[in-house]
Amino acid sequence: MRHHFLTLVLGLLVGTWSVAGGPSARAADVYDYDGVHSSVSFKARHLDISWIHGRFNEVSGTFSLDRQDPSKSTFALTIKADSIDTANKARDEHLRQPDYFDTKQFPTIEFRSTSVKPIDGGYEVTGDFTMHGTTNQITLVLMGGKEHDFKKVKRVAFSTELSLKRSDYGFDARAIGPIGDTALIMIDCEGVRE
């Protein structure tokens, strides 16, 4: 009789733990942006005859992956606009001025996801992209997502490319002539968790 009573109590405890979100309801895995193995780069046309290449050197972010319910996954990225680097100090300083990124007034470029859905080989992530004080909704196709365990650190990587028009973000139209309106942005992001 005592054995049956203990079994009943244990059964109720396990059931309550599961409903409360215990181990059977696994939470999403959270990864931090690994600046050593990630990059945010771009290129834009110059006089419509060549490409100017550059990158942002200060980027941070985090993403959570819910493998059981991908719609609950989240992605966030913050770029410090004044970390722009085109391998030319004079040009970089000009790009920080009000007729381009205006980094004093708009110090960061940000992306915050609002919906996530799985696709073959990755995720389709829609969210708010804010640059130069203007926010537009964009959709990123992130390819990747397999977890790799290296030296007891779990890593997941994604890559994406997108095309943006500076005129959609309030850049000075007078500066759009020499440098093309469209910028191609390439993001390779590796996330880590202990």
From TrEMBL:
SMART domains: YceI. SUPFAM superfamilies: YceI-like. Residues 30-192 form the Lipid/polyisoprenoid-binding YceI-like domain. Pfam families: YceI. Residues 1-27 form the signal peptide. InterPro entries: Lipid/polyisoprenoid-bd_YceI (IPR007372), TTHA0802/YceI-like_sf (IPR036761). Keywords: Signal. It comes from the Bacteria. This is Lipid/polyisoprenoid-binding YceI-like domain-containing protein. It comes from Stieleria maiorica. The lineage of its organism: Bacteria, Pseudomonadati, Planctomycetota, Planctomycetia, Pirellulales.
